[in-house]
Structures are given as structure tokens and as C-alpha cells.
Amino acid sequence: MQLERLQLDLRRRTPWEALDLGLVALRHWRGPVYRAWFATMVPFALIVFLLLYRWPAVAALVVWWFKPLFDRILLKVYAEASFDRPPNVREVWRALPGLVRSSGLLMGLTLGRFSLARSFYLPVVQLEGQRGRAAAARRRVLGGKTRGCAVWLTYVCAHFSAFLQFSLILLIELFRPREVSSAFEWLAFFRSDFETWRIVLTDLAYLVGESLVEPFYVAAGFTLYLNRRNELEGWDIELGFRRLTQRIQAQSDRTSEMPRKAAFLMVCFFFAGLLWLQAPREAIAEPQPASVGETGEAAQAIREILADPVFGRKIEEWGWRYRDTDSDSPSDDSINFEWLKTLAEWIAKGFRSFSFITFAVLLASLIVLLYRHRETWLTRNAAAREVPEILFGLDVRPDSLPLDLVAEAKRHLAAGERAAALSLLYRGALVALIHRAHVDFRPGDTEGNCLSRVRGRIDQAGERYFAELLQAWTLTAYAQAALPVEELADLCDRWPAHFAN
Question: Which positions, given as ranges, span the membrane (predicted)?
Fold first, then answer.
């Protein structure tokens, strides 16, 4: 890698400063970045919106899902522009098949699509060419202290894109004349009954928001990646040494062009040697004993230190001391706080155990609730469901009912057969609920279970009527209570409004 050609100023930065550098990179290379974006992403989104105009929500989902492909295009622009070679639109289109084949796009559109640090890890696959275990190990090394910032970058950019989308819609609403109907209804959005043109307007606002946020998202992930590699590999130090070497080389070149100065220095050295030869012998220092480096003891000491298993390990020691204490040695006052450390450890263990117990209780409660209400979330095919013929000892076949059920019930009521009239109304309601509302009753259900299964499957007025019918049937069939004829006649009159064809 030719680091001297890198257009970014490499120095030690915090991860948050590296994210800010992404905004500077976007401002500096906005021309090639947005030319590549509007030549690839925008036409793709418009084509998808046009083909799926009947399903705008599906179109928005498709555009969102394929964003990793266009992130790779933006990263190519940033990577080449960093070395002062920004690609043009034609080069981007030529490089597109290679990006599809060899940039890990399949993983980026499947498991990697849900990675919250994908902009930070994308250069590992696309620029370094890492795959499989090597890529996983590389991601672990790079993400040691930086992955959290990359996750926050994804979180903030996603919300900022949504804010821009709603802001554009509200801007249209702000300048809308009063005579014109509203272009966006919030209640309709939550009721999922949007009109098609309103969803298309929302999709276009989403495209504008992504066009403003996604180039910064890729740039910030790229600069965060460069900053992490600079921290691990010391690129700034290497560049500093290279500049120093170039400066020394330039100075030596200038020195070689000045023979007079070289000759003058040689004459000076010659006279200095003559003066040294003329000096008295007493003034010459006695030879010093050989140093440790000359005798080889230094190399031996280095080998012994490297062989020590303690060398190279990082040991963290915790202790209490006052802030204004300069000494690192523990004082007598730190011993007094040992009980506080022990207490904090016991509290932490207690909270950990409490969290495990709470999680287990919540999981068990969730399992119990899912089992109890399994009928509400298990979807069954209406054509494949088993329709009972006998339920609670009652014949619930549609053929077993008379053509004019209400007239037959009133005839039984006029003859004094109140139980028969209620039985006919009850059977007719069960048949209607089983075959039209697709309510699945079980042979062991009680009247209360029947009422709970009907709840939410028909309108509230029908639920109230069915509850009254159940209560009347229970009193008549089990308590042998004779209800007033007027109440039974009222039930007969109201039955067609809820269960008639």
C-alpha cells in the first residue's frame, strides 16, 4: 500500500473523531460519490418502484434490502479517491460485475444484512479480500474497541434517514393550501389503509432520505476502518519515518552538490587529527572496560526476559486510593475499603442471580400464555379444518336446521316449549359461528369457553347477543329455570340481525 499517496491525514484519533472524518471525506469527494450514487442506486430504485407500483411497501422493502450492493459501489469510490484516483461513472459500471461476484455480496444480502457494524466490516471483505475464518478473525481484531461506535453509527443513520423522510412529507404538508386535501394521513398510516399514491410519495421521500444519509454512512464506516488500522499498524509512524527519510535524502543530495563544503570539512578533520596526535599521553583517557552490549550479556538478558512467561501479559489490579496520592503503592487506608469491595461483589452476584431467576420466570410465563392462547395465534386453514357435526350433544349440521329458524322457534315458544325454542336458537348460532365466522369449538368447551372463542371474531353487538343467548340457555338447560316469554320472544326477534344469512 502506497501510504504516501493517501489523501487523508493519518494521525491518532478517537473513534468518534474518525466518524467526523467521514463527513469531511463526503464533502471533499461529493462529486464522484453522488455521480456514482445517482448512476446506480437511484435508477434501480425508480425501476423497482415502477415495476411494483401496485405494491409500494414491497418496493420499498426491495430497495432497502439491496442497499449493501450500492454500499460496495460507494466504498469503491471512497477507496480509490483516497489515493487521488476517483473513478468516473463509466469505471463504476465496469466494476459493477466484479463487485457482485467478489465482494461478499451474497453474505451481505443474507446473514450480513442484519449486522449493525456492516459499514465498518465491509472493507475487510471488499478491500482486503478476506473470507471465512480469516475474515472472522480479522473482524474480531478490528472490532475490539471500535465495534460499538460502528453500531451507534448504524443506529443514528437509520433514525436520521427516517427523520428526513417524515420531514420531507411534513414540508409538503406545510406548504399545502387549505383547499387541497392532505397528502399524508397519520391515522391511515397506522391503520394500514394508505392509498397507493400516498405510499409512492412515502417511497420517494425514503429515497431522498437515503440519498442524503447513505453516502455519509459508508464514508464514516470507511474512515473508522482506516483509523483502526492506523492504530493497530502504526501507519502514521511509518509515514513519519518515510518523510524523515525523504528529508534526509534530500539533504544528502544537496550536500553532494556542494564539493567546496565537503572539501572544507575534510580539511577540518585533517587538522583535528593532527592536534590529537600532538596531545600528551597523560591527557588520553585509559581504556574503559567492555560494556554489557560488547560482551554479549545484553542479548542474553533480553533472551531471559522474553523467556519469562510473565513478559507480554497485561495484568489489571484493582484497589482503592485517594486521587491526590502520587504513589502507586497501596496505603493503609486502602485496607479499610476491602469490605466495600466484597459488598459490591456480593451485590453484583445477587443482581445476576435475580436477573437469571426473573428471566426464567418470564420465559415460563410466556410459554404458559402461548399454550393457553394457542388458538388465537395458530392459524388454521379453513378448508382443511375439521367441522364437527355433534357439539355438546347438539346437532350442528346446517342441514339439521329448518329453513325458517326464527319462525320454528316462535312456534315452539307459542306451544310452551321454551327449551326447544332456545335449543333451536343456540344451535343456529353455533352453526353460523362454525361455518361463517370459522370459530373452532372443542367438544370439551364450556359455555364460558365458547364465549371466549367467539370474542373478537364477530362484532360487539353479536358478542353481547351471544352472551345473552348463552345465559338463557344455561338457565333453561341446567337450572331448569323458566324465563319470561317476553325475553325469549325478544331473543327470537334479534337473532336474524346477527346470525341470519
Answer: 36-66, 149-172, 204-226, 262-279, 351-371
Q: What is the pLDDT of residue 334?
A: 45
Please count the CA atoms within 13 angstroms of the CA of 4 that sit on its side-chain side: 7
What is the value of pTM for the model shown? 0.49
The CA distance from 414 to 431, in Å, is 24
Give the pLDDT of residue 36: 92
Please, where are the H alpha helices in 181-195?
186-191
Domain boundaries, the chain: 3-240, 342-372, 390-499
- Joined grid coordinates for residue 197: 399514491
Query: d(Cα 238, Cα 255) in Å, to the nearest integer?
Result: 26
Give the pLDDT score at 136: 85
Q: Rg of the Cα trace of the chain?
A: 41
Question: Of 385, 372, 363, 490, which Cα lies nearest the Cα of 440?
Answer: 385
**Residues of the chain whose pLDDT is less than 50?**
190-191, 281-294, 327, 329-334, 379-384
Phi, psi of 291 (to 5 degrees): -75, 175
Distance between CA atoms of 367 and 120, rounded to whole angstroms?
Answer: 38
Q: Which three cell numbers stand for residue 120?
A: 465498518
Tell me which H or E stretch contains 391.
strand 390-391
Residue 139 CB coordination number (10 Å): 18
Distance from C-alpha of 146 to C-alpha of 23, rounded to nearest angstrom: 18
**CA–CA gap between residue 433 and residue 441 (Å, rounded):** 9
Q: Is 162:170 a contact under the CB 8 Å cutoff?
A: no
Are the beta carbons of 65 and 109 closer than 8 angstroms?
Answer: yes
**Spatial contact of 203 and 60, defined as CB atoms under 8 Å apart:** yes
Give CA–CA dist 69/41, Å, rounded. Answer: 9
**Integer Cα distance of 21 and 222 in angstroms:** 10
> DSSP characters for 262-277?
HHHHHHHHHHHHHHHH
